[in-house]
Design goal:
By secondary structure, the protein is an alpha+beta fold. The chain has 13 helices and ten strands. The relative contact order is 0.08. The chain binds zinc ion (2 copies).
């Protein structure tokens, strides 16, 4: 008896949105049922013998057409983890025994993996490992802390990841925390580590309010434009925001704090300038309270 098109779709859903002819046949879905489901738009064909639900995200469709699974930066970004730069190309995790396939508009970045999953998305640990090799230390660390914060990865997963990293990079995992508030915090903590500066985020200061970061005891660092974009240029609201910022800075100064303000783009892309500004304040110990200043 033919299976209804909706049931064919459901079979794809239970295997992550993608199913192969063999899996479908094993579930009792014959060619006639498959053709009907395709004709009625309940499923789509990604490539020879591979079908998917029509609302499968386009990057995942691309990765499967390429012959693999969504991997590296694309996988991490699709999972909603913090990234410094959103992916422009689709990063594909390819099983070592797999074959890269030609498909329309291919601009994919291929990563060969020892995992041989048929899932349309690479395991997160695998994707993080690929990210380290592809985008380097900072992008990896930011995504790792985000995965830890969201509990998308547990202690065993973190331990496995650490063991698979090159030995000289394992300190990154040891340095990572489970409670980072934002990707910006992860990035700042990593960059300030080399300067021997202690960083606290989302600090509540009585009379001032919640500030983004405090370095040492008395240096406030505020990051404007929290996300990966600049604030909308609305002159009335930006004037009132500027006024509020000045009030906060004055209140903080009255309590002995100094405030440095940067925007997200400056911190991420113009770090030497930001670092020089921070060092000018901290090298003389002005960021430490009298109690602890040397
Ligand atoms: Zn491709
Ligand atoms: Zn990559």
């Amino acid at each position: 008896m033919p299976v209804t098109p909706a049931l064919v779709r459901r079979r794809c859903v239970i295997s992550g949105g993608v199913a192969r002819t063999g899996e479908l046949a094993a579930s009792g879905i014959d060619r006639t049922s498959l053709s009907r489901a395709l004709a009625e738009g309940e499923i789509i064909r990604l490539r020879e013998g591979v079908y998917a639900v029509p609302d499968l995200p386009v990057p995942v469709q691309t990765a499967v057409r390429h012959g693999g699974a969504l991997g590296c930066l694309s996988r991490v970004h699709a999972a909603g983890l913090w990234v410094l730069e959103a992916p422009e190309a689709v990063h594909v995790s390819m099983p070592r025994t797999g074959r890269r396939r030609r498909h329309e508009g291919c601009g994919c970045v291929t990563h060969w993996s020892r995992a041989s999953t048929t899932e349309p998305r690479a395991p997160l640990g695998e994707a993080l490992l690929q990210l380290h090799g592809c985008r380097g230390t900072e992008e990896f660390f930011v995504a790792l802390e985000s995965a830890m914060r969201k509990r998308f990865i547990g202690r065993p997963g973190v331990a496995t990841l650490r063991a698979r990293l090159p030995a000289k990079h394992r300190w990154l995992v040891d340095f990572a925390r489970w409670d980072a508030d934002s990707g910006l915090e992860s990035l700042l903590r990593l960059r300030l580590r080399g300067l021997g500066l202690d960083l606290r985020s989302q600090v509540q200061i009585p009379g001032v309010g919640r500030v983004d970061f405090v370095l040492g005891d008395r240096l406030i660092l505020e990051a404007d434009g929290k996300a990966n974009h600049v604030d909308a240029p609305d002159s009335a609201s930006s004037a009132s925001k500027r006024h509020k910022d000045l009030v906060r800075d004055a209140a903080a100064a009255a309590l002995g704090f100094e405030t440095l303000r940067f925007d997200y783009a400056l911190i991420v892309h113009e770090w030497p300038m930001v670092e020089a500004a921070i060092l000018a304040r901290t090298s003389s110990g002005r960021h430490l309270s009298r109690r602890v200043a040397r």
